[in-house]
Amino acid sequence: MNVDLFHFELPNDRIALRPAAPRDAARMLVVDGDGLHDRVVSDLPGALRAGDLLVFNDTRVIPAQLEGLRGQARIGATLHKREGPRRWRAFVRNAKRLRDGDVIDFGGGVQATAGAREEDGSLAFDFHGDEPVELLLERAGRMPLPPYIAGKRPTDARDADDYQTMFAREAGAVAAPTAALHFTPDLLARLAAAGIDHATLTLHVGAGTFLPVKAEDTADHRMHAEWGRIDAETAERLNAVRARGGRVIAVGTTSLRLIESAAGEDGVIRPFEGDTAIFITPGYTFRGIDGLMTNFHLPRSTLFMLVSALMGLERMQSVYAHAIDDGYRFYSYGDASLLLP
């Protein structure tokens, strides 16, 4: 499909720079068979049915943004995928100043050796020493806010909490699964009281989630692989919910993409561990999910393509036009949509 079909005009002032407080006070646009309904996230128990199950991504964002020096040259790096105990792949600013074998000093005693550059422009970094890389990043790194926020204000102490979900447990993401940022312990308790259960899986979100689609046709776009895991117990729970007539609602496109990666053509979700580069565009047949709660996405992005695959492109263009006209806040710190096909 032509990527231009997924374009829409978004006023700059619709980009949220801070999350709603409290988190579940964010607005929520419910899209279902009856039309559009303007609500807030705290209304979620009434928007779902007893027997439904929400699936959250429990990945934890690491301080993956690094600034360092190679001699006198300043190097900026965003780690995006672990490739070994001490090796991470990174997108690098001023990458032309780096050669295979160069050492970068990130300060605080943190150094890494650069590898050869790949076709996508990324480099592998091998971190020096014996300390776990996670400890090195805590010392030298900072929270990797999305470029559409970081370009408008600096990262600060609030982001260390604001940009982690209440489910964050498995360290390894360089971007938050932002739909889950709306949840609080109180909201989770009210969902449970309404008969709505939840489960978790892990997908370590990479920086590729922010990369623009440069191809003119979706068939020519290459997704970056991300590592994920659904254990056998979780897969069994999801299948059991659907078998008894409940719905599996993915919270966030990351949860959806991993479930769909694990689901067979028979609709059965199986245990999964490994990389996925699944790219969902209109025409895709969903096999493992029955709905999606997600934030509002960038024009021409793979995530807007995904929601268009779920609900229909024409309908999502109409949904986003309503959201823009009605003042919904967009992107990572913005409002939510609940999409029930």
Question: Quick recap of the structure?
Answer:
The chain contains 9 helices and 17 strands. With 341 residues, it is of the alpha/beta class.
- Taking strands numbered 1, 2, ... along the chain, how are they ordered across the largest sheet? 2-1-17-16-14-3-12-13-15
- Domain count: 2
In N-to-C order, the SSE pattern is EEHEEEEEEEEHHHEHEEHEHEEHHE
Instruction: Kindly state the percentage of residues in helix.
Output: 10-25%
Number of strands: 17
Structure classification: alpha/beta
Strand content: 25-35%
Account of the protein in words:
The protein has 341 residues and is α/β, with parallel strands linked by helices. It has 2 domains: 239 residues, QueA-like (3-Layer(aba) Sandwich), CATH 3.40.1780; 77 residues, QueA-like (Thrombin, subunit H), CATH 2.40.10. Helices cover 22% and strands 27% of the residues. The chain is built from 9 helices and 17 strands. The strands form 3 sheets. It has a 9-stranded mixed beta sheet with strand order 2-1-17-16-14-3-12-13-15, with helices on one face. The protein has a 6-stranded antiparallel beta sheet with strand order 5-6-7-10-9-8, with helices on one face. Strands 4-11 form a two-stranded parallel ribbon. Strand 9 and strand 10 form a beta hairpin. Helix 8 crosses helix 9. It is globular, with a radius of gyration of 20 Å. It is found in: Cytoplasm. It catalyses: 7-aminomethyl-7-carbaguanosine(34) in tRNA + S-adenosyl-L-methionine = epoxyqueuosine(34) in tRNA + adenine + L-methionine + 2 H(+). GO terms for molecular function: S-adenosylmethionine:tRNA ribosyltransferase-isomerase activity.
